[in-house]
Amino acid sequence: LHLINDILDLAKIEAGKTDLEAIDFSLREVVDQVIETMHFKADEKGLSLSGAISESVPDVLIGDPVRLNQVLMNLTGNAIKFTDRGSVELKVEQMSAGGNSKVMLKFSVADTGVGIPNDKLGSVFSFELAFFPGSANNLKIQQNVEMNIDGSILDGLSLLIADDNDYNRVVAADTCDERAGNHRRYSSLMTIRCLLKR
Asked: In degrees to the nearest 10, what's the CA dihedral of 29, 175, 173, 72?
């Protein structure tokens, strides 16, 4: 399913039909989420994983946090995959204030790689994106709306979560349980079963 989704995304990009959201989001939350999610894979290989955002970078931006998360997860995941020892670092720096009050940011994922001579150690993959500055007030309103979603829509549901990654199953189950749990005073607890890796 992941592979199919990637192919569909690529096809949309090539056809110029990718729909990008333009919403207020916290850049630090996106970076923290990537680091937190990928720590599991980094710890398995004994790697150091860190994230750093320059102080000059505004926290609230307008853009598509889901797509940004996708790109950063892919780059960080690849860096971890091809690094046998050492570290992986995700950095965000402000390059300049672009036109129309946009902020140009540089995202970099650096790793100590594999099979690289000591005097040339380290691979860096980077890209630049321009964002409009966002509104902290709009972000707060948006987050309040998301937090107050009626958990009773989960009443009586039985969910089967199937994933070959232990961490993905735990996160998915906890997220669903938390959504229902916030409304347990009027919502019956749903049944969650995880299909374990055999």
From this structure: -20
